[in-house]
Specification:
The structure holds two protein chains of two kinds.
Chain A: H1 2-15, E1 19-24, E2 27-34, H2 37-50, E3 56-58, E4 61-62, E5 87-90, H3 94-103, E6 110-113, E7 130-131, H4 142-161, E8 165-166, E9 170-175, H5 180-193, E10 198-200, H6 202-208, E11 216-222, E12 226-228, H7 230-243, E13 247-249, E14 254-260, E15 263-269, E16 272-274, E17 278-281, H8 287-293, E18 302-311, E19 323-326, E20 341-344, E21 350-353, E22 357-358, H9 369-379, E23 391-401, E24 408-411, E25 418-422, H10 428-451, H11 476-485, E26 492-494, E27 499-500, H12 501-507, H13 517-524, H14 536-548, E28 566-568, H15 570-575
Parallel strand pairs in A: 2-3, 2-4, 5-6, 5-17, 6-13, 9-19, 17-25
Antiparallel strand pairs in A: 1-2, 7-12, 8-12, 9-11, 10-11, 14-15, 15-16, 18-21, 18-22, 18-23, 19-20, 20-21, 24-25, 26-27
Chain B: E1 7-13, H1 17-28, E2 33-36, H2 56-59, H3 65-76, E3 82-84, E4 88-94, E5 98-104, E6 107-118, E7 122-124, E8 133-134, E9 140-142, H4 143-152, E10 155-156, E11 160-164, H5 168-179, E12 183-189, H6 198-205, E13 212-214, E14 216-222, E15 229-234, E16 247-250, E17 253-256, E18 260-262, H7 265-269, E19 294-296, H8 307-323, E20 331-336, E21 340-344, E22 347-349, E23 356-363, E24 367-376, E25 379-389, E26 395-400, E27 411-417
Parallel strand pairs in B: 1-2, 1-6, 2-3, 6-19, 8-14, 9-17, 11-12, 11-17, 12-13, 20-27
Antiparallel strand pairs in B: 4-5, 5-6, 7-18, 14-15, 15-16, 20-22, 21-23, 23-26, 24-25, 24-27
Classes of the chains: A alpha/beta, B alpha/beta.
């Protein structure tokens, strides 16, 4: 094919003969070796840009170091051996959990597996929680399609799942030198994109947002932007799926698959071999690996790290609404990020970020001071009230990017019984409700093609998931009544976030249990405040031990091997003492 | 006002050493006092301080933390002080009286009080607040949490441990963990001088052969489930890590003693003015803050190194809250020379003649042979010579004020080379 020759000519001149492209089945395959990871990524983008085929698989070997092996749980048992669910969803992020929940609308056996000890431990807990209006995505993309559908679903889905959601809008701010009429001119484009927009002159902008930097001159306002707690939504989807009959197997890693004549016949895990009829690939940053196991790889994931910082709630005066970011000419050119911004989370903290950096590592969540400073330096252009002293914590997430910079949402190309929800990065959270519906439909269609049976509706499906009470946000009379019924709801354990013992115990008794300090933190926010669990950490550990009937030294921070404490002190044991000190 | 609300003269928030002293002092003046404590047991952080050394100034003997607390707790029973333990103050609203919204297992209650004494103490600075990066595994504890696990819950948080910060809690935990069988690899301090009291350096580190490394800090954590190692780096004079000096140290635990932050979130909601140097409320010699009827004492005003002075400030604030009468307040500012980090109080009330006032201050850096002059404009009130002054050691002086002080005068603390 002429254009593959062209790609090879380009690659030869750019990468000096160490990279080669050729057609493999219906996609483009890159091979070769290179010591610089960024060059490998650049080759992928270059190939995708000129690709006459559908999809780029980048198998250029990185010789510059060793990519750490995927972390696999140590647990080995046969608890799932021989299971043959109708649909097996791989990946407990927001998309996988949404798909599982939507599948339970039908009479199907649904099993979701995730290799971690809880759902939402990768990208779904490591993002900014923003519900995007869809500003900078191509109209022809899958991202655009699902973002638009998903965005409109948030009131309903968050209502059903009882997850806090705020639609506060987004400002895109401009420096004074950009004339306001130029912003009016862009309104045509926003109308074409189907995004409601409003132009704000300086006076109006500072009336609404007095915390913004004074040298800003105008802004575009997009009212459809919002904010949700991303892991809160994932957990809620998971709980509702379980309530409606789905089974969740955590600490379950897919190790391999048997594929015969374009059909996955068996899925091997650390908990035995399963025989699902249809597989859904919602494995995030690992979705390329899962596709490869299924002999259905026509895309590659290249991890892209990003770090966000969270400010103390008491310093949220920089932004009154949900989100603001400042656009300076050329500032985001060539960088594959929406540029981040200052986001007011649904819980009232300001969140800054993220930045973007290519990395060969798929689960290295380490942070670095440089990225905090880069993000801060950028966001002070939006509000100069921000500074390092206001930051209480930070975290790194890893995006599952494809070289096409688009979602891969489709039935398998070479393998019949797989459906992909892959390459999901921003605006994946916004798209998740729509992806849940669409991918569930695709899985049902695949099931029909294989078995010839269309599943019936699940008559017991209940879309409503009851949330854990949030006492601090309740009206007083309701809160008083709850405490009267269960006094634990009046015992405040986490002082920064005002979380009661009752809420913590409730978090331990949910449909998807996660009896760890971090599991409790993600469910009820104990430890999310300015002291970062310094005061409540030991109390939460004690509550977990008491509720679960386990010794304190068995309490985990997060997953396996994360015990907080060692055996009782030797002196106490010798004295035969202990107990209440 | 609502008639079914309990009403008090003084509501003390926090029953650590400052709050206990404040409540007792207010009650002695005949006030109706409510003492509110978030935890089930009174005494604050003293409960977990099983080491001795408390009370040397006040009682002339070395007490363990719980013993020191007991000196105050034992006096509570004979008083009219009402205690609300395991009770959380969710908000304070000011109308003609203060309305405190309390949450407890008994339900929600709004109590009214003429005055508030804030004795809310400190929280610890965390790993993220001192820019420690890398992964976020189990095994990274603030010193206070590690102390709680060890002394209250009776479990060992560490086997092979690095301590960052040579503040007193860090030093005490180095000894405590060693005594309990853990290996403490060293105490690392980013500053070029140790932060803790000399007696703790001697008794906690030297006596146990625990090395102290100055001008070094922890920059990174390793490990996914449990901490496996930390990265240590030398720092420059601005306490920035120097590239190329990094070394990796295998350990399962990092204990942080990297500073205390006065807890003033309630104070802020009341509009109390804070001092950027102390991070606590600006007060006068009575502990009276910028908001009429709101007093503050103890570590939420400034971080003390001796509990004895915490109790002293509690007594002062408690007694003053009991005497409080609505009226116009007049005060003069306290100014210090540049070599002092701060002085508490920051203001002197001249509405009534207080006679003697107690001033607490710290130097910015280590100094030798200095003379302190306290003067009211040109009138010298007191002079004192110091051989050795160190930032970790808070200085306390009592100054007799003249009978009349002009509204436009200023009280100066000037520290100069002696001789």
């Amino acid at each position: 094919m002429a254009s593959i020759q062209k790609i090879n000519r380009l690659l030869a001149s750019e990468f000096m003969g160490c990279v080669e492209a050729r057609q493999e089945r219906a996609h483009l395959l890159l091979t070769g070796a290179c010591a610089d990871w960024r060059e490998i990524v650049r080759a992928g983008y270059l190939a995708a840009k000129h690709n006459p085929l559908a999809g780029v698989v980048n198998k250029i070997e990185w010789t510059g170091g060793e990519i750490p092996k995927t972390r696999i749980p140590e647990t080995r048992d046969n608890s799932l051996d021989g299971l043959a669910p109708d649909v097996m969803v791989i990946g407990g992020g927001v998309v996988g959990c949404a798909i599982a929940r939507e599948l339970t609308r039908k009479k199907l056996s649904v099993l979701l597996v995730d290799k971690e000890a809880d759902v939402a431990l990768h990208a779904s807990s490591r993002n900014d929680g923003m519900i995007h209006p869809g500003l900078d995505i191509k109209k022809s993309s899958q991202k655009y399609h699902y973002n638009r559908l998903g965005n409109a679903m948030f009131e309903k889905i968050c209502g059903e799942l009882q997850v806090p959601f705020k639609r506060g809008g987004q400002y895109l701010c401009f420096p004074k030198k950009i004339p306001v009429p130029a912003l009016y001119a862009t309104k045509l484009y926003w109308a074409y994109m189907g995004i409601p927009s409003r132009v704000l002159g300086k006076k109006r902008l500072f009336q609404e947002e007095p915390g913004l930097r004074r040298d800003l001159g105008s802004a575009l306002f997009f009212s459809t932007a919002g904010s949700v707690c991303p892991y809160g939504l994932t957990i809620a989807y998971a709980e509702n799926a379980i309530q409606n009959g789905a089974r969740f197997a955590l600490q379950t890693a897919v190790l391999g698959m048997d594929v015969t004549d374009g059909t996955i016949t068996a899925v091997r895990t650390n908990r035995g071999t399963l025989y699902p009829k249809v597989i859904v690939n919602a494995a995030g940053v690992f979705s390329g690996d899962i596709a490869a196991m299924a002999d259905d790889q026509f895309f590659s994931i290249h991890p892209r790290r990003g770090t966000n910082s969270i400010c103390d709630k008491k310093y949220s005066d920089a932004i009154a609404r949900q989100h603001a970011s400042t656009l300076f000419t050329g500032h985001s050119k060539g960088a594959h990020t929406k540029g981040g911004g200052v986001i007011r989370t649904v819980h009232g903290n300001l969140l800054l970020g993220p930045d973007a950096a290519e990395s060969p590592e798929k689960e290295n969540f380490a942070t670095a001071q440089a990225s905090i400073q880069t993000v801060l330096a950028k966001q002070v252009k939006t509000s100069d009230k921000l500074h390092q002293g206001r930051i209480i914590t930070y975290f790194t997430g890893i995006r599952a990017s494809t070289y096409e910079e688009d979602f891969v949402v489709c039935r398998g190309r070479y393998t019949k019984n797989i459906v992909h929800a892959a390459g999901i990065q921003s605006p994946g959270l916004t798209a998740a409700p729509a992806l849940g519906v669409a991918v569930a439909q695709m899985a049902v269609a695949a099931l029909f093609d294989i078995t010839g049976i269309a599943p019936r509706e699940n008559p017991k499906f209940n879309p409503v998931r009851e949330a854990i009470p949030n006492t601090a946000e309740m009206p007083s009379d309701e809160r008083a009544a709850l405490i009267a019924k269960n006094p634990n709801f009046g015992v405040i354990v986490c002082r920064c976030e005002e979380i009661s013992k009752g809420e913590i115990i409730a978090a331990l008794q949910r449909p998807l249990p996660c009896a760890s300090i971090d599991g409790v933190k993600r469910r009820v926010r104990a430890g999310m405040g300015r002291c970062q669990g310094g005061f409540c950490g030991p109390q939460v550990a004690k509550i977990i031990a008491d509720e679960k009937g386990i010794p304190l030294e068995a309490v985990l921070k997060s997953g396996e091997g994360s015990e907080l404490l060692f055996a009782p002190l030797k002196t106490r044991a010798e004295e035969g003492g202990g107990g209440d000190a | 006002m609502r008639e079914n609300c309990r009403t008090f003269d003084v509501a003390v928030v926090g029953a650590g050493p400052a709050g206990l002293a404040a409540a007792l002092a207010a009650e002695r003046q005949g006030s109706r006092v409510l003492l509110i404590e978030r935890e089930a047991r009174l005494g604050g952080i003293l409960k977990q301080c099983v080491h001795d050394g408390f009370g040397l100034v006040r009682f002339g003997e070395k007490l363990a933390g719980p013993e020191y607390a007991h000196r105050f707790l034992s006096r509570l029973s004979g008083t009219s002080i009402q205690i609300a333990a395991l009770t959380f103050v969710s908000a304070i609203k000011k109308t003609d009286l203060f309305g405190l919204e309390l949450v407890s297992a008994h339900g929600l209650e709004t109590v009214l009080s003429k005055t508030i004494v804030l004795a809310t103490g400190c929280r610890e600075r965390t790993a993220q607040q001192v820019a420690i990066h890398g992964t976020r595994p189990a095994g990274v504890f603030t010193a206070g949490s590690a102390q709680y696990y060890t002394n209250i819950l009776g479990k060992l948080p560490a086997k092979r441990c690095v301590i960052l910060g040579s503040g007193d809690i860090g030093l005490i935990m180095a000894r405590r963990l060693t005594l309990e069988g853990a290996k403490v690899l060293g105490v690392y301090e980013a500053k070029s001088v140790p932060s803790g009291l000399p007696r703790n350096l001697a008794q906690c580190l030297h006596d146990f052969d625990i090395p102290l490394y100055l001008s070094k800090t922890v920059t990174r954590c390793f490990g996914d489930a449990r901490l496996t190692a930390v990265e240590i780096a030398d720092v420059d004079e601005n306490m920035r890590p120097i590239d190329g000096t990094q070394q990796i140290l295998d350990c399962d635990t990092l204990v942080l003693s990297v500073g205390l932050i006065p807890e003033n979130e309630l104070a802020e909601t009341l509009g109390v003015a804070l001092d950027s140097a102390t991070k606590g409320a600006v007060t006068d010699q009575d502990g009276h803050t910028s908001v009429d009827g709101v007093f503050a004492c103890g570590n939420c005003v400034h971080v003390n190194d001796l509990v004895d002075y915490v109790s002293e400030s509690g007594e002062t604030a408690g007694a003053a809250a009991a005497r409080y009468a609505v009226g116009t307040r007049k005060s003069i500012p306290v100014r210090t020379s540049d070599n002092l980090l701060y002085c508490v109080p920051q203001k002197i009330s001249i509405t009534k003649n207080n006679g003697e006032v107690v001033l607490y201050f710290r130097v910015k850096r280590e100094l030798q042979n200095r003379r302190l002059t306290v003067r009211l404009e040109e009138r010298t009130l007191l002079q004192k010579n110091y051989k050795q002054m160190r930032p970790p050691e808070m200085e306390r002086i009592a100054v007799k004020l003249p009978e009349t002080i002009g509204e436009n005068e200023t009280l100066y603390l000037q520290l100069e080379v002696n001789g």
